[in-house]
Specification:
disordered N terminus, elongated, 11 strands, 2 domains, alpha+beta, seven-stranded antiparallel β-sheet
Length: 255
């Protein structure tokens, strides 16, 4: 039968095509697959350093005066963050004084004595209006201040002594380089011609006239014998210095 022959021929052709005779097809385009890279090794995060400006805690075993200064420095720091601190020899005794303040702006002075902390200077301002600041005579319990008036035509020199009850008492010497003709206490335009002609000396309180010799006799110590009342260390450094006194005391006890 002819139709069988035709059918077999068609089947044979189909089988041949499936066994390698099939028409080659272009492969379907595939989307590009990005290369998978292993994540780069990361360095461990650096540890956050402790705040270098953090204030230390008070150490055990400090002398009473050091504990008082430690507490006072912390209190002062809250009021004047720019302040610096130092231990100074104000009285010549075994216990130093605490000088504190913002250099060029204000100064404070504390002295521990009789089991208590005494405030000798409480944020005394300077640096403006002719006030040159405050100095002390080491070991002599004396504080000095220079200030000027009338654009430098008047020089005020004040001396304060530390009293037995931890107060201050003192006086001011005045040097006028002009003649105050109208007695108003300032240099007026019509008085400028008297500048430098004659010096006038006074003792205050009382505005008592003095001779040049009397004026000099009231001065305490030499001009360059004084040291400025100012700090030298930030609060953290100063508190660390006080804490170091514990080690010093322990070493002295063992010796």
């Amino acid at each position: 039968m002819r139709w069988k022959t035709v059918l077999l021929a068609a089947l044979s052709a189909a089988l041949l095509a499936g066994c390698g005779g099939q028409v080659a097809r272009e492969p379907a385009e595939q989307e590009a697959v990005p290369l998978q890279r292993e994540p780069a090794a990361q360095e461990p995060a650096a540890e956050t350093p402790e705040n270098e400006n953090a204030l230390p805690q008070m150490a055990d075993g400090l002398p009473d005066w050091a504990e008082a200064y430690f507490i006072q420095a912390l209190a002062h720091e809250t009021e004047v963050p720019e302040a610096e601190y130092a231990l100074i020899d104000l009285t010549g005794g075994e216990i130093p004084a605490l000088a504190a303040g913002h250099s060029g702006y204000e100064a404070s002075l504390y002295q521990y004595g009789g089991g208590e902390l005494h405030t000798l200077m409480d944020h005394w301002p300077y640096g403006t209006c002719g006030n040159g600041g405050y100095a002390y005579l080491p070991g002599r319990s004396v504080i000095r201040n220079y200030s000027t008036g009338s654009a430098g035509a008047i020089l005020y020199t004040s001396y304060h002594r530390v009293t037995a009850d931890w107060g201050l008492e003192g006086y001011t010497l005045e040097l006028w380089n002009f003649q105050d003709q109208n007695q108003n206490g300032v240099l007026d335009e019509e008085e400028t011609e008297t500048l430098g002609q004659t010096a006038y000396y006074y003792y205050d309180p009382g505005k008592l006239p003095l001779t040049a010799e009397e004026y000099d006799s009231y001065a305490i110590g030499g001009k360059f014998d004084y040291e400025e009342i100012r700090g030298g260390k930030c609060c953290r450094e100063f508190l660390e210095e006080l804490n170091g006194l514990t080690v010093k005391n322990n070493e002295e006890d063992l010796s």
